[in-house]
Amino acid sequence: MSAPVSRNNSTNNLWQSIAVEITARRSLVAVTVVRDSGSVPRRTGAKMLVYANGCTLGTVGGGLFESLVVRDSLEALAQRQSVTRVYSFNPKGSTAQAFGAICGGRAEMFLEVIMPPDRLLIVGGGHCGRALAHAATLLDFSIILADDRAEYAQPSDYQLPNVESVLHLPADFSGLPAPDAQTYVILVSKGFMTDEAALRRVLDTPAAYIGMIGSKRKREVVFNNLRADGVAEEKLARVHAPIGLEIGAETPEEIAISILAEVIQVRAQRRPKTSLTQKPQADDDVAI
User: Fold this and answer.
1) Are residues 24 and 134 in the same domain?
2) In this structure, is residue 287 part of a structural domain?
3) Which of 131, 240, 121 minimizes the C-alpha distance to 169?
4) What is the per-residue pLDDT for 99?
5) 180: domain range?
6) Which end of the chain has fewer CB within 10 Å, C or N?
7) Which of 158, 72, 169, 145 is nearest to 112 (CA)?
């Protein structure tokens, strides 16, 4: 992605650009002037997008001020947490001669981190996979289900909210969407060979969670096969197997709940624990 710097601040263009980025599963920051006073470059309501590579779309004022906003936006994006910043246009923190006339106003900016929805990648459309898809529609996941059996990968069986796609793939699961850092992978296919094939596809990805159904004996068979191929122990340690929280689940529906409970637990542990704090005012003083 190489979004150009643009001064076109059309709200429609910004919303369309956000939709494009979210569809492509790329995160960005939407910057909005939420309060202003005195002389400032842009008034309340002005917006700008900041992409992960530092490029921008739209403008909230340009110059040193905007470069500081981009800096703070990238910090917020790195921490995956929206934040409010206040910028004061006075000479305290910089030299007026270096940046031109002094405005003397203040602008409060909301730096909103926008991320694609967490994705649930379910490998296996049997009893447990189907129960998982149904239960997960109550949560805020985008759902992909894949199976190597055509009869278990029928889109017509998954006319459910938030189901992104249903895929019929080969038994080696070539073509499986590559998980990103917001993807939670659940392996519940027809047997250990297909689970192992899918696991090989996702083990080297930045997936937030990888879980595989089955007994401890199955886990060791699969892990030993991977070890024989040189897979490091730290990679195998990422895999939750047996999968799910121990709640005494027996039916496919109960198993689905136990698995989703573990996924929710992992997701909660990954959330930022502290808020980004307002920086000292002197750090944000700019002269333009």
Assistant:
1) no
2) no
3) 121
4) 35
5) 118-269
6) N
7) 72
